[in-house]
Amino acid sequence: MLLEGLKPGLRIEGLIPAEVLTVIAVQWHGTDALELTYKTTAGSLGQQVVFRKDEGKLRIAQSGSRAFDAPASEFKLAAEAQRITLAGLFDPMIAVATSDVRPLPHQIQAVYGELLPRTPLRFLLADDPGAGKTIMAGLYVKELILRDDVARCLIVAPGGLVEQWQDELFFKFGLRFDLLTNQLIDANANFNVFETHPLLIARMDQLSRNERLQTQLRETEWDLVIVDEAHRMGAHYFGGKLEKTKRFQLGESLGEVTRHLLLMTATPHSGKEEDFQLFLTLLDRDRFEGRSKVTADTSGIMRRMIKEDLLTLEGRRLFPERIAETVPYELTRLEYDLYEQVTDYVRDGMNRAERIGGKRRNTVGFALTVLQRRLASSPEAIYKSLVRRTRRLERKKQEILNGTYRETEPTIDLEGLDADDFSATEIEQVEDELLDAATVAQTVDELNAELLELAELTRVAGQVRDLGTDRKWSELSAILRDNALTTDANGRPRKLIVFTEHRDTLDYLRVRISSLIGRPDAVKTIHGGVRRSERRQITEDFTNNPDCQVLVATDAAGEGLNLQAAHLMVNYDLPWNPNRIEQRFGRIHRIGQQEVCRLWNLVATNTREGEVFTRLLLKIEEQRKAYGGKVFDVLGEAFTGTPLRTLLMDAIQYGERPDVKARMHKVIDQSVGDGLKELLEERALASQRFSEADLAALHAAMNDAHARGLRSHDIETVFKTAFTRLGGRIVQRERGHYEITNVPAHIRAGTHGPIAPRYGRVTFDLAHVPSDDPRHAELLAPGHPLHDAVMDETLRRFGGALNAGTVLVSPTLTQPHLLVGVIEEVADATGATIARRFGYAYVDSLGTVTPAEPAPHLALAAAPDTPEVTAAKALPWLADAEDRATSWIISHRLPDYLAQVRSRRSTELARTRELVTDRLAGERDRLMFDARVASKKELLGEKPKESSESLRRKAVELDHRLRARLDLIDQQALMSAKPPLISTAALVLPAARG
C-alpha cells in the first residue's frame, strides 16, 4: 500500500496540485492517518495530515522528476526569460546595465558598496550638493526591484522636487512612480491610497500636515522609503524639553512602516551636535538616545563625500575650481539718504517691537528686516514694498474704524528659518505676507503716525527710482558686458545666472538686462510663483538655446534645478542664510560642468549690513585660498552659536556702536576663520575619498559585472522571439530602433503598470537612447513594464518546459551531464533574507558539481530524436542526480557563500551592538543617578525638576529597550543557508564524433 511505502527522500505527486513534493519525515497516528513533513520544489517546508481515504490521490513521481521531453526551443526561450527575470541574483550591477545613466565612481561605490550590502537598510546619504544623489537613489531602487527585494517604495520630497523625482525615475530608470496628488487621493476616497499605489512619490508637507494621510500611512507597510532633503525633518531641545516638528514626527512614522529607510541631504549637520543626533534617531533611536555633546559615531550609517574629492573613472577631478569675488560699491548720495531714512524706520519699529515682546516681536522684527533687505536689493523693490505696505496698513486702519478688524497676522519660525527648514518658495510667500501686514501699530492714531512716515519714505524711494542712477545695476551691467556678452573659445555666447532675493528686483533686472542685450528673448526668469512644469521648460531653453543667455532667478531656482549650462553667477542680493550661498553656487557647480565656476557678490560697502557681508566675504576668500571651494559647503554650519541673520539684524539696529561692530567682527572671524578650519578638518575625517587602489578595485568590479551580467543583445533576442510568439508585432525602423505596432491585450492585462497598445520607438541598447534626441526611444530592459510583462507571460506559457527539462548537445563535453539552474539563499534567525544568488552548474554521473558560464544553454544545440538520446534519458544516475547535486552544493559551495555573507554582516552587527549598548546603558545609568539625587531632594522636602519615580521609570524603559535590541541583534547575527533550490534542469550529451 502506498502510505506504508512513504519514506524520507521519496518524491510524490497529488498532494498539492501541479507540485512534486519530497518526503522529509513520516509519523503515523493510528493505522489510518499520518503526519507528513515535506519540501516543495521551491524549497519551502510544509506539513499535512494524510488520511487513508486520500491514498488514491497520491502517486510516486517519475524517476528524477523530469521527463526531458520538452522542445529545446521552448526550454531555451523559457530559460532565458527565467535568467533575465532573475538577473538581479547574478548580475551585480543590473541597474547600471539597464538604465540611461553613466554612473561615476562615487555613485557606484555608494549604491554597491554602502547601500546594497546593508539589509535592512538604515542610512544617511550626505554627499555634497550636485554629486548626483538622485541618480544613486534611482540605481538603488531599481537594483532592489530587479532583485525582487522591493515591491513597494515610497519617496518623500519637498513639494518643489516631486515632479523632478518622477521625471528622473522614469526617463533615466524606466520606473513609473505615481504622484500623491489631491486628484489621486479623491479617486481613492474609499480606499487607502497608500495600499493601492505601490510606487509612490509624496510631498513632505502634504504628509506632515494631513492627519488623515498620516493615519492611512501608519496602516501600510513599505519595503523602501526614501526621504529627500531629509534635514528638514528636524527636532530641537528647548531648555530640557524635546520639541519635535511635524516633519520630524513624519520621519519617525516612516521609519516604523518600512524595512529599508534611506535619508538624503547635503546639509545633515546644522552645526548643533544635539540636533544632529536627534536627526539620526530617525535611523536608529537606540544608537542615538538622549543628549550627548560627544561627536556622533556615524560609521556604517552615513556616507559623506566632498565635491573637491570626487573623481572620474579615469582618475581626474570631477568638479572644476570654484572662485568667488566680492564686487564692492558705494551708494550714491540720494541712495544713501533713502537707506538712512528707511533704516531709521526699521530700527524704530524693531525697538518698539522689542518693548512689546512675545510672538509679535519676532513677527514685526522679521517683517522689518525683509523691508531692509528689499532696500538693499533695488530702488524698485523698496519702492513697491513701501507702496504695498501702505495699502495694507490703510486697509487695517479702515477695518478698525469699521469694527471689522480681526487679528490674523501670520507668524514666523526664525529658528526654522535659520535651520533651513523652509523651501525658497515658502519663504517668498511668508515674506510677502509679513512685510505688508506686521506692525507694532494697533490703534488708529498709531497707524496714522506710521502711514505718515511711509508716505515720506515712498516719496523719496520714488524719487530715487525715477532718477535711474542705480549704482548696483551699474556694477552688474559691467560684469555682463565683460563676461556674459562675450563668447567662449568655441564662439558660443556665455551664459550667466543672476540671483536676487525679490520678485520686484527680478522684474526690474529682466527689463534692464533685456535692454542691454537688445533682445527680450535673451533673458529668462524663475521665481516661487513659476510652476514646476514651467521651470523645467525654462531650464531646457536656458540649457539648449544659444540665444538665451541670462537667467534671473530667486532662490526657488536654487532647489532641484540643474543649470550647469552656465558657469558664471552673480549674487545681486546676498542671502541672509549662508546655506543659500552654497545652494545657489551648487546649481552651476554640478556633475558635467567643465569650466571654472565664477561667482560675483555685489556688496554696498557704505551700509551697515554691507559692512558685515564685506567682512564675511573677506574671511571666506582667505579660507578659500587655503582650502579651495570646500569652504562654500560648510558656511551654514559655521554660524551656529550666532546665526548670520542675528549679526545682520544687530548691524541694522546698533551698527554704529563700536562695541557691536567689534563683536560682529569677532563672531565672523571665529566662525569663518577658526570655525571653518575645524569644520573642514571634521569633514575630512568623516568623509570618504577615492584612492588609486579604490579606483582600480572599482574598475575590476565593473569589468566583472560586465562579464557576468546581461547583455543588451541577449535581452533584444529573447524579447523579440518571445513577443512574436505571444502574438505581438515589432518591426525595425532604423539601426537600433524598433516600432511596436501591437501589444496583445493578454500582455497588457498584467500587473506591471500601464502598458501602451503600441510604441512608436523603442530600443534595447543604451547607445541608442541619446538624451538630446527629440525622437526619444524607450529603453526596453528589465524594469520596463512591457518587457517584464512579456517575460512573465513567456514563463507562464512555456515555463512547463523548465520543469520537464529537455535534451541538449554540447560540442565540448565528453560525458553526459545534467545542467541545473540553482538559487542559493542566506537568511537570519528573524526569517529575513540576507543574500541570494542564481547561476548554472553541471552535474556529472558521480554527483560532482562544476560552475557553468552565465547562459550555457545558448551555446547548446537541440538533441536529435534518436534511440541513443531516448536511452540517455533513462541513465540510472539521473534518478538521484539532483539530490546528489543538492548535497554537493550544501557541502562544498554553501559554506563559503555563508562565510562571505556572515563576515561582512557580523562586523557591522558587532559595531552596532557596541554603540547601542554604550548609548542606552549610559543613558540608563545617568537617569538612575539623577533619580538618586532627586530622591535625596524629595526626602529633604525640596522639589526636583523631575521626580525620582519618573526618572526611574525612564531608566527601566531604556533597560527594556536595550535588552530587546540586543536580542534582535543576536537573531540577526545568527545566519544560516537555506537548502539550494534547483529551478530547472536539462540533460546535456556530448556531440556525436564523426
TrEMBL record:
PANTHER family: DNA ANNEALING HELICASE AND ENDONUCLEASE ZRANB3 FAMILY MEMBER, SWI_SNF-RELATED MATRIX-ASSOCIATED ACTIN-DEPENDENT REGULATOR OF CHROMATIN SUBFAMILY A-LIKE PROTEIN 1. Keywords: ATP-binding, Helicase, Hydrolase, Nucleotide-binding. Residues 114-286 form the Helicase ATP-binding domain. The keyword Nucleotide-binding applies. PROSITE patterns: HELICASE_ATP_BIND_1, HELICASE_CTER. This is DEAD/DEAH box helicase. Residues 479-640 form the Helicase C-terminal domain. Signal peptide: none annotated. It comes from Actinomadura physcomitrii. GO terms for molecular function: ATP binding; helicase activity; hydrolase activity.
